[in-house]
Amino acid sequence: MTTLESTTMSPPSNSPRTRQPGVAGKKLVLQGINWFMPAATLGLMVYFSLATKSFLTGGNLLAVLTQNGPTFIVAVVAAVLLMAGFVDLSVGSTLALAGVCSGLTFLSSGLIPGLLVGIAVGTAIGAINGLLIGWLELSPLVVTLGMLAATRGVAQYLAPDSLYGFPSDVNILGNGSIFGVSYLGLAALLVIGAALLTMNRLPVGRKIIAIGVNARASYLVGIPVKRLSVLLYVVVGLAAGIAGVLQVARLDSAPSGTLGVGFEVTVLTAVLLGGVPFNGGRGSVLRVVLGVWLIAILKNGLTLLNLGPEIAGIVTGSVLVLAAGLEAIRFWVQRSK
Amino acid sequence: MPRDVLDQEKSVTFGLMLSGIRKSYGANHVLRGIDMNIPAGTVHALLGANGAGKSTLLGCLSGATSPDDGEIVIGGRPYRGLTPTQAFEAGCAIIYQHFQLIASLSVADNIFLGQERRTVLGAIDTRRQEREAQSILESLDVEISPKSLVGSLSVGEQQIVEIARALRRKPDLLILDEPTAALGPHEVTALIRLVRRLATTQGLTVIYVTHLLNEVLQVADAVTVLRDGRVHWTRDRLDLEMKDLVDSISPGSSLTGRASDCEPGAPMLQLEALQCSFTGPLTTTVHANEIVGLFGLLGSGRTNLLESLAGVRRSVGGGVSLSRTSPASTRSKSLRAGISLVASDRKEQSLFGSMTAEENVLLPHYHQLSRGFRSRGRERAAFLETAGRIRLSPMSPGNPADSFLGGNAQKLVVGRWAGELGDTSVLLLDEPTQGVDIGSRHEIYDLLREFVSGPERCVIFASSEPEEILALATRVFVLVDGVPREIAPEDITENYLLSAAQGSSGEAEGTSK
């Protein structure tokens, strides 16, 4: 009986959380998390350089840039969109439809009309997404998922069979280069530059982030939230259009059934690897470039090592989940006082 | 001694005892040693101005925060600090000002939310929940069907559902945080009767937080006034008069300092029968250098009115015209006309938590500070100028906004418009010092007074705190159910405002006191 009484009367032990990591230690952990992605990329590059003869050559690296040009172009812009808190799952099919339309026009009217038509189609799809999501405030996931299916369907309807036999200057656009850098690579570098400039040096960059952090407060301080979000979707469509044209030109054919299939997943993976949170409000263009680059060299290096693409999938997925885990740790460390 | 007898004895003799509760956030000492003793079966009113430490103290009891020092004794058991689970197990139930109900669920579902009654198969036993909810509601003497959707109930009924939910857990300590803020006069009377009955018949210990002094006298057995994180005094209801309460809440010295000595300038803002949903019509002219206070309870339409002035909410009729420019019908138009709004609920509506202090202040002004490209130098200089003006602490441009404490976070969002940047001429503020400590409060008042002293500038603010209206406003409107009424300068007293806002005829109250 006495024991029972003493247990009921004893105060519940509530040991104060005395274990406080020092401020310096906390900083170190945060720095470590920040440097994980760059370090992983560098580590992989060093490994592939040592393991294969051909990896660390200018030719190979430029080829990686060219092959992944479409991913760079779209991922960097989609990253900016995600920073504002919006997602676009339709980029793969947008790329396909733009590519198919430009392919049809290449065949009928030549290079320049095809180029313009492809870009226009991409932009138009972006505009539809933008109006539905930015203006009418429909769900980004639902709208762009619907668009993903619908646009693929239209592309296959317009060109049931793969298109080929384009005029020869199309091939030059796709595979030509100046000073050793392919047009595709050049376009990617230009888009990256424009995104860096926008986010870091133009006033609108801060506004985009602000929308991602708190859309209501953004509206109240006078940021044109609707107009900006429509514009962002339009620019993503534009980027997917350019990527579609260049991809078709590089392949010298437009296979409506396979063009850009799974592209949206690659883009989203790269953007998330680049540290943009799924809810937006934060992010760095440079890190997203690094994210695309990591996926790109992984595929390239493993191919050079004669390993199949399934390994690339396993490694990419693991790195992504690891990055998410590190984000959780960062959040936890920042919150603990 | 058998255990249940012991427990029973405890719950009768002990209610809640606090000794030496302290809590600091950095250098900001919010609670500086609180001692309170509340016997079981009594209602204890807790008073204090914003920033006196009320919410932090409630946080310590609900488990939202834990005190740095001191002891909480509930039902005879001492605690150093509570986690939310411990608070629950210790028998604390807290009902916040903003209801935590889910409108699309039924009354019974809400009452059992998180602790659903289940059938043998694990499905929710709706019938049993409804039966038990019915009996709880009957014990409260109210006629609310357990089946009706919470969204279809009146605010007063929702408040009752909140209480029913709290009682379902059979708490020993019930904490009500401004329970009547959204209620009409009849509902207030009913609630007070209910609270009294729960305390006297069921032996519940009740802490009743409010700033409506009439209620205090009706509901409480004893009263504690907090000031600057200390217990200013605790007294028995029988030894109290209205005058004591008024004196203790708004000590003549600390908060008064009306700006009325500044002469109103030329007419600036003209409202012609402005009307928006549930609010208006309001016809008045606001002059330069004026600070207009809108006093009203939660749901009285003060926010609607400010939002329609800011072009956030569409007005139904009438119009706004500014001496300088055209009417403001949309947010961007009104911003261009120089009308800025600092909305209430800083976290949801005005602060960009993860962005830096500098970004928070400069966000509306980046275009103005850039020549095509942004200039980091100009931006930093502009931020430091504003930060100095608002006396930001710590003065670190790169710290994220949510690392600043209430007062300084609020200074960031007020400073955004009240600084030299931008072109704000009409500054609208909704609850400008919600969750702001007393020191920062004065600094924000000074900031606003300085702002209106410039040419072609005026401030319109809404507040539910009479002391804030008294401290800051040069003209006052009281809003009751969306209808604004101007108060003559000589009538602007705390009592008059409170009774006018409750909807009772203010004049009768005013003269009788």
Question: Can you tell me about this structure?
Answer:
Chain A contains 16 helices and four strands. With 337 residues, chain A is an all-alpha fold. In chain A, strands 1-4 form a two-stranded antiparallel ribbon. In chain A, a hairpin with a 2-residue loop joins strand 2 (177-178) and strand 3. Chain A starts with a helix and ends with a helix. Residues 1-20 of chain A have low confidence and may be disordered. Chain B is an alpha/beta fold and 513 residues long. Chain B has two domains: 3-91 and 171-249, P-loop containing nucleotide triphosphate hydrolases (Rossmann fold); 255-512, Rossmann fold (3-Layer(aba) Sandwich), CATH 3.40.50.300. Chain B has helices spanning 3-13, 54-62, 84-89, 107-111, 126-139, 155-168, 185-202, 213-219, 242-249, 252-255, 302-309, 331-336, 346-349, 357-362, 366-369, 376-389, 406-418, 438-453, 466-472, 494-501, 506-512; strands spanning 16-25, 28-38, 43-47, 69-74, 77-79, 92-95, 173-177, 205-209, 222-227, 230-236, 267-276, 279-287, 291-296, 315-322, 339-342, 426-430, 458-463, 475-480, 483-487. In chain B, the strands form four sheets. Chain B has a six-stranded mixed beta sheet with strand order 6-7-8-3-9-10, with helices on both faces. Classes of the chains: A mainly alpha (337), B alpha/beta (513). Chains A and B meet through helix 1, helix 11 and helix 12 of A and helix 1, strand 5, helix 12 and helix 15 of B.
Residue fraction in strands of chain B:
15-25%
The two chains with the largest interface, and their residue counts, are: A-B, 28 and 40 residues
* Quaternary class: heterodimer
**What is the total number of structural domains of chain A?**
1
Shape of chain B: globular
Spatial order of strands in the largest sheet of chain A: 1-4
Measured between the Cα atoms of the first and last residue of chain B, the distance is: 55 Å
The termini of chain A sit apart by 43 Å
